[in-house]
Amino acid sequence: MKSAEDKDSFLLGPKYRRVAEHLRAEIARGVWGAGTQLPVERDLADALEVSINTLRRAVSELVADGTVQRRQGAGTFVRPRPGPGPGPRRLVGVLVPSTTYYYPRVVEGIRQVLRDSGVGVLLASSKYDLAVERDELRALRETGVDGLLLAPNLHLMPDAQEYVDCLRELPVPYVLLERCPPQPAPDDPTPYVRTDHGGGVCLALRHLRSLGHRRVGHLGRLHTGSADLVARGFDAGSDLLGMEVPEGVSVRRAVWTAEETAAYVRHCADSGVTAVFCLGDRDAASLVVEARRQGLRVPDDLAVVAYDDEVADVGDLPLTAVSPPKTEVGVLAARMLLARMDAGAAAPAERVDLLPRLVVRASCGGTPSAAAPLAAASASPQGATVV
Predict the structure, then answer these.
(1) Where are the domains of the chain?
(2) Which of 137, 150, 229, 355 is positioned for an S-S bond with 197, CB 3.0–4.6 A?
(3) Domains 91-195+328-354 and 197-324+357-386 are alike in CATH topology
(4) Does the keyword Transcription regulation apply (predicted)?
(5) 91-195+328-354 maps to which CATH number?
């Protein structure tokens, strides 16, 4: 194990300056893009085989020359580089709850549009924490962004509508991502692009109905951004389609334990339920495993449909899933924001709802029947059917 001095011995001249030059070169090569968070100090120091003190001095150099920016409690982030041309490059701040689940494809759509328009992106994550969200939004504003794309944690707020109303005081244009005002006035001007989660659930239930399922269950979640919308969509869709939901088979929990999933499967079997709609691929996969453990055949005895389509196709039994149009949400939101940045107060208040797709795989046991009132289906590259 090298000592701190040994770790730095390969450097000639001022050690921290050589490290700073190396980091600048890596950033210039795109190893860490604009808005990207640098690795934590210990990991980065170990990777470079330098001491923590040397790394900190090097990063301080990058902060001083504007290459990176420190955000209190969040980390160190690469600043966007100025674009070509006589004027300063415009910059959009993007604040999402997570950069690892659901939102990466939303951000991908945003980057596509803004990159083609020569606009920089500064990405931040609230990590589903209201305090972090507040600090990150303030940091984005202090950076001098020209517009904001926001996915606030409205489901965690005591008065979400008041928060949305207060966003009108922002000094720059903004558009909500996958969010909308929860209790808007008729003339609420908040612009947003979101997935019609309830419509996606109804699409799945209609498909199950076309396969002959009449008794269905809902294994849901609490305290997520889409949980309430999915639950309302399940209630409305099952009622619309005349599907029976026996008592105790529409259940929502903050986290599903193995024991709770096992009890739920037993209750569904006892209640004659033949299909279950699950919020979340991982919960749906756990349900399939438990159903098989209890001797049920999936999909013959119990059909399963998931919501999210993040990892629905990676198991030994690929899951039929409602697939939100994540990239398209990012694309449309970015275009909407650019229009508002260009038009200013004259920009119309646009509100866009996008219907998800249904990707039919093995877990539900069939493709849409010819008589089912569904959109036209086509073969996907994965061999699934997309509705």
Answers:
(1) 4-78, 91-195+328-354, 197-324+357-386
(2) 229
(3) yes
(4) yes
(5) 3.40.50.2300
> Would you give the distance in Å from CA 194 to the centre of its chain?
11
Over the stretch 119-175, which tens digit does the pLDDT of each residue have? Answer: 989 999 999 999 999 999 999 998 889 999 999 999 999 999 999 999 999 999 999
Q: How many residues does the chain have?
A: 387
| 197-324+357-386 CATH choice from 3.10.100.10, 3.40.50.2300, 3.40.630.10, 3.30.2310.40 | 3.40.50.2300
Distance CA 229, CA 194 (A): 12
Rg (C-alpha) for the chain, rounded Å, is 24
Scanning the structure block, which residue is given the tokens 């968070």? Answer: 37
Tell if the pTM clears 0.85, that is, is over it: no
> Average pLDDT, stretch 267-272?
98
Nearest to 329 by CA among 354, 359, 357: 354
Beta bridge pairs of residue 71: 75
Question: DSSP for 310-333?
Answer: SSTTSSSSPPEEEE--HHHHHHHH
4-78 fold = Arc Repressor Mutant, subunit A (1.10.10)
What is the β-pairing status of strands 174-177 and 192-195? parallel
CA distances from 121 to 63, 72, 147, 330, 363 (A): 18, 20, 10, 13, 39
Pairing between strand 320-323 and 357-360? Answer: antiparallel
CA angle, residues 139, 141, 147, in degrees to nearest 5: 130
Cα–Cα distance between 194 and 179 in angstroms, integer? 6
3-state secondary structure of 100: coil
